[in-house]
Specification:
The chain is 53% helix and 18% strand. By secondary structure, it is of the alpha+beta class. It has a 4-stranded antiparallel β-sheet.
């Protein structure tokens, strides 16, 4: 499945199911084939998305520090991080917030 996030405020953002599911869960939403992020909710959703991405970065750094302390090889970061995958949607949501537009998918 693909997610195609749409808003009148910007270009469509397409994500594979795994990435789309992850960002929706970070915002406290259940993954679904169709949905809406209402403009009035965007400030809180953006904050939740940013906090989730920051937590993912911190968890990876914790794993790196633990590996160093144990004398083990450092874990490898995925070639595309959650921060990089979430950024286009974050930008669309930010633009949508400025323009008072909703973000929808599956419609």
């Amino acid at each position: 499945m693909l997610y195609c996030f749409k808003s009148k405020a910007g270009a469509d953002v397409v994500m594979l199911a795994e990435s789309g599911d992850a960002v929706l869960r970070l915002m406290g939403r259940e993954p679904a084939p169709r949905g809406i992020l209402q403009s009035v909710d965007l400030p809180a959703l953006l904050q939740a998305l940013q906090a989730g991405v920051d937590a993912d970065d911190a968890e990876f750094q914790r794993r790196v520090d633990a590996a160093k302390a144990a004398g083990e090889p450092e874990p490898r970061r995925p070639s595309v991080t959650l921060r990089q995958r979430a950024w286009p949607l974050h930008e669309l949501m930010t633009r949508s917030q400025r323009h008072g537009a909703d973000v929808v998918w599956g419609v």
